Amino acid sequence: MSDTRQKIIAAAHALRRGEDAVGAHTTAEVIGVISDRMASGSITPTPQISKALGEALSALERRDTLWLADMLEHEIAPLFLHD
Amino acid sequence: MTTAEQNSDIFRDRWPDIWEWICDDLPDHDVRWEETSQAKTLVVNGFHLSSAYDPIAEARTQAAVAPPSASHVRIIGVGVGHLPRALLERPSLEHLEIIIISRLAFYRACAEFDQSDWLTDPRVRLVRGDQLERVPWPVCVNPSALRLADQDCANLAGRLYERLNTSYTTQILEQNPTIQERIRTAGPRIASAGDVAALFGKATGGEVIVALGGPTLSDQLAWLAHRQRGGTPVISASTAVKPLLAAGISPDITIAIDPWDGPEVHLTGTQRALRGRPLIVYPMVKPVVSATWQGPVLIAYPEGASGGEQRVQALASTYPRGRLFSGGSVAHSAVDLARKMGAKTIVLAGADFSFAGTSQSHARGAAFAEDVPGTATDTVINGHGQRVQTQANLKTYLYALEDYIAHHQECQYILLDRRGARIQGTTYLDELEDV
User: Which of B46, B54, B165 lies at the smallest CB-CB distance from A21?
Assistant: First the structure.
């Protein structure tokens, strides 16, 4: 498993256990990484990715942590499958 | 018979009083389904009760907080029911204590999902969260219950949140290279400064005011000025210094513990007015703060939850100085100083740990004071029994202060304003006749 993917899943698990601080910190990092990759063209900004990112950011803001964890683990982490 | 009826029948049979409590006067709420190709869950007031992709794996992640061989496990929040199941699968488990802090989340889970398997398990015991002040650790948590906690369980939920997140925030601070370097080079600065312990015992049996930078400080200034003229010493957090000076109150002692930019900004331009008066700092405070102070600088080491860092301990053994309790906020250190000065009564001004129902983050005139947007998701209960908006870190500080007060009952702690967060262990000024 790639480092980035592992990190995202670890953050999702932390969120599921109620450890928001570590989860939120990693989420911010991950969103930065994805933005950079989109800018460099290594990730294509599909509607699915945009939707997952939008959902993750909204969940982060609302502190709906289980949905944020879902977005990270099940929608965003697979983007880094072959990282 | 519907799922809801089946679950409620079990409740009425096993825990009739708790079921009555759960169902009694539930607040209005929004509820909807969230469904993916893999699973579905309920969303109550905007919070997902569980994963909508793999709630069983999620429950196993939450259950893993309890050691595999544990015979007695506590949980907070059941999600949609998978967390108790994940734990009851363990043959070594003898007792599963389910603490209900959100009647709403619990009720909805029982109304929409079959919970009969674990509700009938003889190892399960239900506990009302509103009857607990603390939850022994470890505890497996479904975080949706923390978000949806009942008002009378809000304190318990906040404490759990603090416990779940403190180690990470402390770790971030301790790993910061700038602060580490500042501590590494602090020796000469400490050697040339005084010792906070010189103040210990200087107010034996008396009253000391601790002024903090919360928004209600702005409305307490006249009372504080009157009190100070009567001889009560004022210890001011660096945040509160400018509002106090603007009201003609020169704090007798100033204290700064924040390693970031705060104290420098708080105290810029105040040094001349406070010439000759002591400033207390932790070794990790920016050196410019003590270098520009025009009075004695006294060093204190942090003691307590945020003060266990190894480099600080090493400094303390080379340059012994007094210690002040640190729970992350200057409020803790200031209160501990008042107690160690020997105060019998500690009056807390501006100790709001919230926005106190105002639109301001701090007292008027304090550095960094700004309008708050009114959309904060964190709340605390104030002295009027109302929910007021706050921030997660302020709640952490509140709970640390409450724990401190619980351990130091030799003092009386008086709160001046009911609009800020209620602080367990304190008395409101308006409840007293002779102060």
Answer: B165
